[in-house]
């Protein structure tokens, strides 16, 4: 039984991790103001994060784990490619088209996609309450997204499509990698998967990009470092600690802070704003996800 003090500590650590994760979209949008493309910003993020995850992988090399087979490493590479490389790339591309606040709202639907994948591939039953929660969530998305299209134009569809792809690839990673995490251990699996992602980004940049990485304004490098440290490495630790203290079901509930914190940060640093209809849509989305989380706990 977790003590009240430990539970409160876990909640506070989790909220801090979520807020830091949420700041990623805002810092990426700030980088785009210097005419930097999505792949270059993603490269800077991975370049700065790479040494940290090398150190983490080394530090946790003896973390207690189950027997790991050769095929498990192949699956780890696959899920690192899908869950951290593809999901991140789609997200960064999507942010070139849409606001940071709208991006976070769309990404926040990934628990509904997890439920759908569990139904399709693992034959798990979706309860009536979960079906209602999924409907509520997507009604909220339609309200928020439709309102933005009427304001900003059809290019919002492009951004929404890429961010939706990000949510789908991340959800597939969550569904498929669950059986691997106990084998490697949480920290070691995360570090290995992130290192795979880093290598994928390095290869992608080397094959596709013709941009000189050394010609950006100094502000871009500072933002790249901040994205890597404060919106990637540190929150990944905080979230892991929070889940350990309060369990994943309770963490799923406080994750509702994510869209709200992104909206607040976007208003402060990007001068973004939401219409009343978009605010209503955001609240509907959050209620839908909280309903799913509550149903899971039961």
TrEMBL record:
<feature type="transmembrane region" description="Helical">
    <location>
        <begin position="7"/>
        <end position="27"/>
    </location>
</feature>
<feature type="transmembrane region" description="Helical">
    <location>
        <begin position="134"/>
        <end position="153"/>
    </location>
</feature>
<keyword id="KW-1003">Cell membrane</keyword>
<dbReference type="InterPro" id="IPR000620">
    <property type="entry name" value="EamA_dom"/>
</dbReference>
<keyword id="KW-0812">Transmembrane</keyword>
<feature type="transmembrane region" description="Helical">
    <location>
        <begin position="39"/>
        <end position="61"/>
    </location>
</feature>
<protein>
    <submittedName>
        <fullName>DMT family transporter</fullName>
    </submittedName>
</protein>
<keyword id="KW-0472">Membrane</keyword>
<feature type="domain" description="EamA">
    <location>
        <begin position="9"/>
        <end position="145"/>
    </location>
</feature>
<feature type="transmembrane region" description="Helical">
    <location>
        <begin position="276"/>
        <end position="293"/>
    </location>
</feature>
<feature type="transmembrane region" description="Helical">
    <location>
        <begin position="189"/>
        <end position="208"/>
    </location>
</feature>
<feature type="domain" description="EamA">
    <location>
        <begin position="159"/>
        <end position="293"/>
    </location>
</feature>
<keyword id="KW-1133">Transmembrane helix</keyword>
<feature type="transmembrane region" description="Helical">
    <location>
        <begin position="73"/>
        <end position="98"/>
    </location>
</feature>
<dbReference type="InterPro" id="IPR051258">
    <property type="entry name" value="Diverse_Substrate_Transporter"/>
</dbReference>
<feature type="transmembrane region" description="Helical">
    <location>
        <begin position="159"/>
        <end position="182"/>
    </location>
</feature>
<feature type="transmembrane region" description="Helical">
    <location>
        <begin position="220"/>
        <end position="239"/>
    </location>
</feature>
<feature type="transmembrane region" description="Helical">
    <location>
        <begin position="104"/>
        <end position="122"/>
    </location>
</feature>
<feature type="transmembrane region" description="Helical">
    <location>
        <begin position="251"/>
        <end position="270"/>
    </location>
</feature>
<dbReference type="Pfam" id="PF00892">
    <property type="entry name" value="EamA"/>
</dbReference>
<dbReference type="InterPro" id="IPR037185">
    <property type="entry name" value="EmrE-like"/>
</dbReference>
């Amino acid at each position: 039984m977790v003590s009240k003090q430990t539970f409160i500590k876990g909640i506070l650590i989790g909220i801090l991790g979520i807020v830091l994760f949420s700041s990623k979209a805002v810092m990426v949008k700030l980088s785009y103001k210097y005419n930097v493309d999505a792949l270059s910003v993603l490269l800077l993020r991975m370049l700065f994060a790479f040494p940290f995850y090398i150190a983490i992988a080394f530090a946790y090399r003896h973390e207690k784990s189950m027997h790991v087979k050769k095929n498990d490493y192949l699956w780890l590479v696959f899920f690192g490619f899908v869950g951290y490389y593809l999901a991140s790339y789609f997200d960064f591309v999507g942010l070139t088209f849409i606001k940071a606040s709208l991006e976070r709202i769309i990404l926040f639907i990934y628990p509904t996609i997890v439920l759908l994948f569990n139904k399709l591939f693992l034959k798990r039953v979706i309860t009536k309450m979960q079906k209602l929660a999924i409907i509520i969530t997507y009604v909220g998305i339609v309200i928020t997204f439709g309102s933005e299209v009427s304001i900003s134009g059809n290019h919002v569809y492009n951004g929404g499509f890429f961010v939706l792809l990000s949510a789908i690839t991340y959800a597939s990673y969550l569904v498929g990698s669950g059986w691997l995490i106990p084998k490697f251990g949480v920290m070691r699996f995360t570090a290995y998967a992130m290192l795979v992602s880093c290598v994928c980004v390095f290869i992608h940049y080397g094959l596709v990009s013709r941009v000189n990485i050394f010609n950006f304004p100094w502000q871009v490098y500072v933002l790249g470092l901040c994205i890597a440290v404060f919106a990637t490495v540190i929150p990944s630790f905080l979230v892991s600690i929070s889940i350990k203290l309060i369990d994943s079901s309770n963490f799923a509930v406080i994750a509702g802070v994510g869209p709200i914190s992104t909206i607040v940060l976007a208003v402060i640093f990007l001068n973004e704003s939401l219409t009343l209809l978009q605010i209503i849509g955001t609240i509907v989305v959050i209620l839908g996800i909280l309903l799913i989380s509550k149903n899971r706990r039961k």
